[in-house]
TrEMBL record, chain A:
Keyword annotations from UniProtKB, A to Z: Cell membrane, Membrane, Transmembrane, Transmembrane helix
Gene Ontology cellular component terms for the protein in this record: plasma membrane
Record's protein name: Branched-chain amino acid ABC transporter, permease protein
Major localization listed first in the record, in broad terms: membrane
GO molecular function, one term: branched-chain amino acid transmembrane transporter activity
Subcellular localization, as worded in the UniProt entry: Cell membrane
Chain ranges passing through the membrane: 12-32, 38-57, 69-88, 108-128, 135-153, 173-191, 222-245, 251-268, 303-323
Xref: CDD domains: TM_PBP1_LivM_like
Automatic annotation (TrEMBL), chain B:
Taxonomic path: Bacteria, Pseudomonadati, Pseudomonadota, Alphaproteobacteria, Rhodobacterales
UniProt xrefs under InterPro entries: AAA+_ATPase, ABC_transporter-like_ATP-bd, ABC_transporter-like_CS, BCAA_Transport_ATP-bd_LivF, P-loop_NTPase
GO BP term, example: L-amino acid transport
Protein name as catalogued: Branched-chain amino acid ABC transporter, ATP-binding protein
MF terms in GO: ATP binding; ATP hydrolysis activity; branched-chain amino acid transmembrane transporter activity
Residue ranges constituting the ABC transporter domain according to the UniProt record: 2-233
Keyword set, alphabetical order: Amino-acid transport, ATP-binding, Nucleotide-binding, Transport
Domain of life where this protein originates: Bacteria
CDD domains recorded: ABC_TM1139_LivF_branched
Family: Belongs to the ABC transporter superfamily.
Pfam families per the UniProt record, alphabetical: ABC_tran
Automatic annotation (TrEMBL), chain C:
Record keywords, A-Z: Amino-acid transport, Cell inner membrane, Cell membrane, Membrane, Transmembrane, Transmembrane helix, Transport
Family: Belongs to the binding-protein-dependent transport system permease family. LivHM subfamily.
One Pfam family cited in the UniProt record for this chain: BPD_transp_2
UniProt GO MF annotations: L-isoleucine transmembrane transporter activity; L-leucine transmembrane transporter activity; L-phenylalanine transmembrane transporter activity; L-valine transmembrane transporter activity
Name under which the protein is recorded: Branched-chain amino acid ABC transporter, permease protein
Segments passing through the bilayer: 18-35, 64-84, 96-114, 141-160, 189-210, 225-252, 264-282
Membrane topology: Multi-pass membrane protein
Species lineage: Bacteria, Pseudomonadati, Pseudomonadota, Alphaproteobacteria, Rhodobacterales
Segment forming the signal sequence: none
Length: 345, 235, 298
């Protein structure tokens, strides 16, 4: 392994601090948590992996993209279809074509297949995503989301549409996803401080300038795009392996709203921001969901308020953009809060 | 007429102009000369209100310092900017209409536009053509005409000779001299010192964000030595 | 033959709707670089105001149509004042995400105040009748829609080439600061652009309501999505591009519905989007991209 430069060493320290934060939360849960909170925590960590993946592309390249739910869905379905036993698939996917219900694989092989499929699709889409400019990137990413979702809904013989694809072995627990989240944090930090990450960030600030310096912007964007789809794939696999049942609905706009709000609140430009944003919004939403059901508060029965959580996400996005466009963290990472940076301001 | 006192101009955190004083009398032409990066364009930007600045900017005693760009224009300050910035997706005629957009007398505007077409027949011939197809010199004339169509009280000209052929430059300066004879108040920013001195009543020389010299145009002779001096100051 | 004429009219009316919406997106984008994700919620607002006013005040369709237009213009201008003014000078991503947030807020406000289920508003469905043009059976709504769109585009064209404010809007697309240096108030130009986009959205809303007969929180989202794609294909920020892209998508979508076997109908939009993506490989900046003209600004 080549020697790390100063900012990469700081990146490792930062990733370590963030991992400790994650472990602290899991520790708190292990000591005092109630069992239903495991589910909340698990969902939060899956979201965290997605938000970190988003950060690797959106944060470094400074484009808004909304296709992540699609890639996550592809990986979730791929892993689910591979790992579900044949006997179960005879019930859950009786009409599947191409012998999809006639084989089964080990969890590891299934995960690798899912990563491979998603990564390949990431590469194919990335080949032209990396050439598009400005708004085109966002709109085409939405087109990808819509296309994939339509296919999920249409091919009910493979994906069951809005019905549940059930019977997936529940292989993962909180431990697995915690490890995965920590790996994601390290990977994203190292990517941010890597040569490609640095080039991308330079190109985001001044594309012409970066080109003039000989940076191959398209290539750097392509790499970031593919890397980010792998994060989404990992999240999708973890999602399927934990829940044991998936449907097309969660892999669409509502999930996109949620994860984008998380990233924006923390600040797109920093991995620590992604982590903090995810944790804060998860906590906020748990409170709001409780309000949404119309609880009784100090003897007063509150009305049921559907849409409150969505409203909150929207308000968070608009308020952050208006008052703190770079999010809570801006360009800073967690270690910048603890260790002052030498030389630069 | 126009008075600038203690003007500081900022680009982000950087101070580009460090507190200069400047005055342009009614009906006179004043040049602001200096090398690249002296702060001339920044000074004009501050006067029209497009960059952050501190200090007093008074037009006939009224302080404009806190007004928005649009309101300063409505007070009678028109800028013919560096690089001309004509609307190259609009026709020649529409560019001129933009210059007169704040006027309410449609007939007067039409008559003024016709005057300009008489003065520069090429603009009249290309009336409905996209302004982006004009040559540099034609675009410069169009930009000056656009600025004057609002009937401003003072015209700010930023490097009108930039990037033009010598013959065209002469035409531009002839136009400036003509405007001055007609009683227009002009603040001219230039690097072409000798041509600028010739049409001016008063000259300011600027370098590194401060005024180095000021005086009547006659004190500068034909201005030819000025450029060397300036580059010396710059280095 | 009859079938072909029917499908042609179908495509025209689809395209007209997309073109109306895409124009509204493009005019705002060309002036202030804002990708207005909340445009669909302006349409939904029009739908809800039709439902409310149509129930409690009057059933007169002409008054109601006027009211829908007014409501859409008002809400578009208001959104600019409240939400988009603060990010006017920000970069594209910031503006885009703000609009995205505004869109989510409005959808959920509709959800909170209305209901997740569509609210009936059938006052305008009388526009959609079956007509016989000789042997060809057509929908009157499609004819209204196509004609109204062509009139709206012509009117917009006149406004942009004849009026001072219209010329200023075109000029602002190139160099906003220079427009201010000509004494035109930035707020007025931007509000004007939003008012026009609201008016076009209102027109689209009337036709959407005539077809659906009900208002729902997400009713504007899907057509706006397609209109965005239309804008990108046409060249984002180009007004002729928006019209071209809108009609192109209308024809593609109807073409897909005709060509794909019945059972694949659900994939028509996906197929259209995929084809558009292919167009973008050929021309990453869209067909009528204004980008090629940007170079000559010093």
């Amino acid at each position: 392994m080549t020697r790390l430069n100063a900012s990469q060493r700081r990146g490792l320290i930062g990733a370590l601090l963030l991992s400790l934060l994650i472990l602290l939360i899991v520790g708190l849960y292990a000591l005092w948590g109630e069992s239903w909170q495991a589910r909340v925590l698990y969902a939060a960590f899956v979201n965290l992996i997605v938000v970190i993946g988003l950060q690797t592309f959106m944060g470094n390249a400074n484009f808004a993209v909304f296709s992540h739910a699609a890639f996550m869905g592809i990986a979730a379905y791929a892993a689910a279809i591979c790992v579900t036993p044949v006997a179960m698939k005879a019930v859950s996917l009786p009409d599947a074509p191409w012998g999809l219900n006639a084989f089964e694989m080990s969890p590891l092989a299934s995960a690798l297949v899912a990563l491979g499929i998603t990564g390949t699709l990431g590469l194919l889409t990335g080949l032209f995503m990396s050439r598009l400019t400005g708004v085109g990137v966002t709109i085409v990413s939405i087109a990808i989301l819509v296309i994939v979702h339509s296919i999920f809904l249409h091919r009910t013989d493979i994906f069951k549409g809005n019905q549940a694809l059930f019977g997936i072995p529940r292989i993962f627990g909180l431990t697995h996803v915690t490890v995965l989240a920590i790996v994601a944090i390290f990977a994203a930090r190292l990517f941010r401080e890597s040569a490609v990450g640095l080039r991308l960030r330079a190109a985001a600030d001044d594309e012409i300038g970066a080109r003039a310096m000989g940076v191959d912007v398209h290539r750097a964007r392509l790499v970031a795009w593919v890397v980010s789809t792998l994060f989404f794939a990992a999240a999708g696999i973890a999602y399927a392996f934990f829940l044991g049942t998936i449907s097309a609905r969660p892999f669409y706009f509502n999930f996109v709203f949620l994860t984008v709000a998380m990233l924006i609140l923390g600040g797109l430009r920093s991995v620590s921001g992604a982590v903090f944003g995810t944790l804060l919004i998860t906590i906020g939403l748990e409170l709001v969901r409780w309000l949404e059901t119309g609880p009784t508060l100090a003897g007063v029965k509150l009305p049921q308020m559907l849409g409150l959580s969505g409203l909150l996400l929207g308000v968070v996005i608009v308020a952050v953009m208006a008052f703190r466009p770079h999010g809570l963290m801006g360009n800073r990472e967690i270690e910048d809060l603890v260790l002052p940076r030498k030389g630069t301001s | 007429m126009l008075e600038v006192a203690g003007l500081k101009v900022f680009h982000g955190p950087i101070e580009a102009v460090h507190g200069i004083d400047l005055a342009v009398g009614q009906g006179t032409c004043v040049s602001l000369l200096g090398p690249n990066g002296a702060g001339k364009t920044s000074t004009l930007g501050a006067i029209v209100g497009s960059v952050r600045h501190e200090g007093a900017i008074r037009l006939d005693g009224r302080d404009l310092g806190r007004m928005a760009i649009e309101d300063r224009f409505r007070e009678g300050i028109a800028l013919c900017p560096e690089g001309r910035r004509i609307f190259n997706n609009l026709s020649v005629h529409d560019n001129l209409r933009m210059g007169a957009a704040t006027r309410r007398d449609a007939k007067g505007v039409a008559a003024d536009i016709d005057d300009w077409f008489a003065r520069f027949p090429i603009l009249g011939e290309r009336r409905d053509q996209s302004a982006g197809t004009l040559s540099g010199g034609e675009q410069q004339m169009l930009a000056i005409a656009r600025a004057l169509l609002s009937r401003p009280r003072i015209l700010l000209l930023d490097e009108p000779s930039l990037g033009l052929a010598p013959l065209i430059i002469r035409q531009v300066f002839e136009l400036i001299a003509e405007l001055r004879r007609d009683g227009m108040t002009i603040l001219l920013v230039e690097q072409n010192a000798s041509a600028a001195v010739e049409v001016s009543d008063r000259v300011y020389v600027m370098a590194n964000g401060v005024i180095r010299r000021a005086g009547a145009a006659a004190e500068f002779g034909d201005g030819s030595g000025l450029m060397d001096e300036l580059t010396g100051v710059h280095a | 033959m009859d079938y072909a004429v029917q499908q042609f009219l179908n495509a025209l009316s689809f395209g007209a709707e997309y073109a109306l919406i895409a124009l509204g997106l493009a005019i705002v984008f060309s002036i202030m670089g804002l990708v207005n994700f909340a445009h669909g919620e302006v349409i939904a607002f029009g739908g809800y105001s039709l439902a409310v006013v149509g129930t409690i005040l009057t059933g007169n369709p002409l008054i109601l149509m006027g009211f829908v237009l007014l409501a859409c213009v008002a809400v578009a201008v208001l959104l600019e004042k409240v939400a988009f003014r603060t990010v006017r000078d920000a970069d594209i991503t910031t503006g885009l995400l703000t609009a995205f947030g505004v869109s989510i807020i409005l959808q959920n406000v509709f959800l909170l105040l209305g209901s997740p289920r569509p609210v009936a508003a059938t006052q305008l469905i009388f526009l959609d009748r079956t007509l016989w043009l000789g042997p060809v059976q057509v929908s009157s709504l499609q004819i209204y829609e196509t004609v109204a769109t062509i009139l709206a585009i012509a009117g917009l064209g006149l406004f942009l080439t004849r009026s001072n404010l219209g010329i200023a809007m075109r000029a602002a697309a190139r160099d906003f600061e220079m427009v201010r240096l000509c004494g035109l108030r930035a707020n007025r130009v931007v509000s004007g652009a939003f008012a026009i986009s609201g008016l076009l959205a209102g027109l689209a809303c009337i036709f959407i309501m005539a077809r659906r007969g009900s208002a729902a929180p997400h009713m504007g989202f899907d057509p706006v999505l397609t209109a965005f794609v239309a804008c990108v294909v046409g060249g984002f920020g180009s007004l002729p591009g928006a019209v071209l892209g809108g009609f192109l998508l209308g024809f593609l979508e109807v073409g897909m519905l005709v060509l794909l076997p019945q059972s694949y109908g659900g994939l028509a939009r996906a197929a259209v989007f995929a084809m558009v993506a292919l167009v973008l490989i050929w021309r990453p900046d869209g067909i009528l991209s204004p980008a090629s003209e940007k170079g000559d600004k010093i």
